């Protein structure tokens, strides 16, 4: 059984001018513990598709199955990390934010605090358990968000451009951290990004979506050993391959990490 099957998914929006198709006939499978990146031009439906997988939006046609069960809404089998720093509760400490999902599940306080501390250690924030979000940098807030999404042990982690609002150096650090977290947890990850170098750095496979309405244009396996060297010729070649699928003219050495 395929852990995640996305089967002919179409989503339509109601607008004053009538129905508009956001994504159309999207199909691909995702294996257990695979790290999938979804890339494509702005407005191609990357985030829309992620919201359908999360169960926040119902598809107009097709279905998504996780472990053979059709997605009918949001469930605790999926953890979600957004781009927006405001996803954390400002009145809760880092520990309080990470333990929130466990609290909703009715886990006793001592046990949820233990789990939350373990997750904060995983993202290297064990010294900041009592800090509130406004005391943390943007990168640290995203680390708390990742720890919170992992704390209730979902089988799938959904990430919508989580590092896009960070400066370049912090984003590079976060990519390294996420690669380490993925190696440690072996979660299945679906990660939306507009950054081609980020996709090559993180992904086992990259799903390239075409412009509006979003359809799958290519499904590319990234066969590079980990940890990956963004300055290697093989890395740059993978970037160029993705850029060509996205319709960009490629010359020179490509972009850096």
Please describe what this structure looks like.
It is a single chain. The protein is 33% helix and 25% strand. The model is unreliable at 251-256 (pLDDT under 50). The chain has a 6-stranded mixed beta sheet with strand order 6-7-8-3-9-10, sandwiched between helices. Strands 2-1-4-5 form a 4-stranded antiparallel beta sheet. The chain has 8 helices and 10 strands. The chain has 257 residues and is an alpha/beta fold. Helix 7 packs across helix 8. The protein is globular. Helix 6 (168-185) links the parallel strand 7 and strand 8.
Topology:
Layout: E1 4-15, E2 18-30, E3 35-39, H1 46-54, E4 61-66, E5 69-70, E6 78-81, H2 94-98, H3 100-104, H4 109-122, H5 138-151, E7 156-160, H6 168-185, E8 188-192, H7 196-202, E9 205-209, E10 216-221, H8 233-245
Parallel strand pairs: 3-8, 3-9, 6-7, 7-8
Antiparallel strand pairs: 1-2, 1-4, 4-5, 9-10
Helix pairs in contact: 4-5, 7-8
- What is the string of helix and strand elements? EEEHEEEHHHHEHEHEEH
Q: What portion of residues is helical?
A: 25-40%
Distance between the termini: 35 Å
Radius of gyration: 18 Å
The beta-strand count equals 10
Provide a count of the helices. Answer: 8
The neighbouring-strand order within the major sheet is: 6-7-8-3-9-10
Spans of at least 5 consecutive residues with low confidence: 251-256
Which structural class do the helices and strands define? alpha/beta
Q: Could you describe the largest sheet, including whether it forms a barrel?
A: 6 strands, mixed
Apparent shape: globular
Strand percent estimate: 15-25%
- Report the average pLDDT across residues: 90
């Amino acid at each position: 059984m395929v852990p995640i099957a996305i089967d002919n998914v179409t989503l339509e929006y109601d607008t004053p001018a009538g129905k508009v198709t956001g994504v159309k006939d999207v199909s691909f499978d995702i294996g257990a513990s695979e790290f999938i990146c979804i890339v494509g031009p702005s407005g191609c439906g990357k985030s829309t598709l992620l919201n359908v997988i999360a169960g926040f939006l119902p598809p107009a046609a097709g279905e998504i199955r996780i472990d053979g069960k059709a997605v009918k809404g949001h469930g605790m089998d999926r953890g979600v990390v957004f781009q927006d720093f405001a996803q954390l509760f400002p009145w809760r400490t880092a520990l309080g934010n990470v333990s929130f999902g466990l609290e909703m599940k009715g886990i006793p306080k001592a046990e949820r605090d233990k789990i939350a501390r373990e997750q904060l250690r995983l993202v290297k924030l064990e010294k900041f358990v009592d800090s509130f979000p406004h005391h943390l940098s943007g990168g640290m807030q995203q680390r708390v968000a990742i720890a919170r999404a992992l704390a209730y042990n979902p089988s799938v982690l959904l990430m919508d451009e989580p590092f896009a609002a960070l400066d370049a150096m912090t984003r590079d650090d976060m990519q390294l951290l996420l690669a380490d977290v993925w190696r440690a947890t072996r979660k299945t990850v679906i990660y939306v990004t507009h950054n081609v170098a980020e996709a090559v750095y993180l992904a086992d496979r990259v799903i390239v979506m075409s412009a509006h309405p979003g359809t799958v244009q290519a499904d590319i396996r990234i066969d590079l050993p980990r940890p990956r060297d963004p300055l290697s010729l093989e890395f740059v070649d993978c970037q160029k391959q993705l850029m060509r699928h996205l319709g960009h003219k490629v010359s020179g050495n490509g972009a850096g990490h």
